[in-house]
Automatic annotation (TrEMBL):
It is an enzyme of class 3 (hydrolase). Belongs to the GTP cyclohydrolase I family. It catalyses: GTP + H2O = 7,8-dihydroneopterin 3'-triphosphate + formate + H(+). This is GTP cyclohydrolase 1. Signal peptide: none annotated. Pathway: Cofactor biosynthesis; 7,8-dihydroneopterin triphosphate biosynthesis; 7,8-dihydroneopterin triphosphate from GTP: step 1/1. Its EC number is 3.5.4.16. The keyword Transmembrane helix does not apply. It comes from the Bacteria. Homopolymer. GO terms for molecular function: GTP binding; GTP cyclohydrolase I activity; zinc ion binding.
């Protein structure tokens, strides 16, 4: 049995216990395959645990556009590490290349996706994306903004549906030049 099979079995066994603990009959027809389904689903929701997202930025190429590149409204789904409930929304990722070092724009979304598919905090997700791009591409600057709704705040707890959490992480020129940062935030949030 390989490691992945073994991990799925662990999740299955644990989820069967959760079913029992909430008063379900784990043999009931409707839920008998649920532990196995949850195990497969967790593979999908947490696949980012197994990758180093820096690899997506290995394939940079040269194009002398040393000005803003902004990919807006990238949908993201992540899991709150405190409650294991989803938080979801959009990520906006901007960078200003240096020395013509650019990447395919889909790679920015791939970086966001890989970090989102882990137990996360919105702040950490935002900084991880920014740091990954800043350290790998060594651009003039990077700015990341995420706007998300947290189900742990909407369907339970304080129950405030529609509340939106906005986080930002800026590096390089966006950090040192307030005017450049202000221009970016205006473009992102309009
Ligand atoms: N900063 C931050 N907090 C988060 C994030 N996701 C969830 N939380 C918060 O994590 C906190 C966990 O607080 P606890 O008091 O330990 O847990 P709790 O009793 O379930 O808290 P309530 O949600 O207030 O009922 C809550 O305030 C959540 O709103 C996130 O991405 N960033
Ligand atoms: Zn939560």
């Amino acid at each position: 049995m390989d490691k992945q099979d073994n991990n799925r079995l662990k999740i299955e066994a644990a989820f069967k216990q959760i079913l029992e603990a909430i008063g379900e009959d784990p043999q009931r027809e409707g839920v008998v395959n649920t532990p196995a389904r949850v195990a497969r689903m967790y593979d999908e929701l947490f696949w980012g645990m197994k990758v180093d997202p820096r690899k997506y930025l290995d394939v940079s190429f040269t194009e002398y556009h040393d000005e803003l590149v902004l990919v807006k409204d990238i949908p993201i789904y992540s899991m709150c590490e405190h409650h294991f409930l989803p938080f979801y929304g959009v990520a906006h990722i901007a960078y200003i290349p240096k020395g013509g070092k650019v990447v395919g724009i889909s790679k920015l979304a791939r970086v966001a996706e890989a970090y989102a598919r882990r137990p996360q905090l919105q702040e950490r997700l935002t900084s991880q994306i920014a740091d990954c791009i800043y350290e790998t591409l060594e651009p003039m600057g990077v700015g990341v903004v995420i706007q998300a709704e947290h189900m742990c705040m909407t369907m339970r707890g304080i129950k405030k549906p529609g509340s939106l959490t906005v986080t930002s992480a800026v590096r390089g020129i966006f950090e040192t030049r307030p005017q450049t940062r202000a221009e970016l935030l205006t473009l992102i949030l309009k």
